[in-house]
Amino acid sequence: MNYLPSDFDRHGLLRLPPAFWGILLLQARNWVLLLLAGASRSEGGTLLALFYPDRSLFLVGLIPGVPAVLAFLLTGRRQVFPRLWYCWRWVLIATQLVIIALQLLALNGFSALSGPGVALLTGDVFALWLLLFQQRVRDCFSHELL
Known about the structure:
The chain is mostly helical and 146 residues long. It has helices at residues 18-27, 29-39, 44-51, 55-62, 66-75, 82-109, 115-133, 135-140. Helix 1 (18-27) packs across helix 7 (115-133), helix 2 (29-39) packs antiparallel against helix 3 (44-51) and helix 6 (82-109) packs antiparallel against helix 7 (115-133).
């Protein structure tokens, strides 16, 4: 592992790469949409209806985002819960697999492929690849660096 001293935070932990934050935002996309809808108050229902005409699909989409929301909370306390943090990478990988499976089911259910659906599926596959193979992300969850 070749990291500079500036790659570590004040607790001596390897800083999380920007790609990791992107993965969390991608996994928690329904939660982000919920926050945007809540912030826009009067336009919130219209915003949700634009992305999710069927509200039940939106509510189901919130469930796979829970591990990402918990990861947001856990990142600031990873020195306090090192074993939980070490395992959380595998939770995020399992969640990403579930999200990809849901995306494939959703794309299979429609006769025409949509651009945003394919883009989200591509982003989800790339996020899975990052969680599995990017060295910096793997090192952030490593026992040796905790």
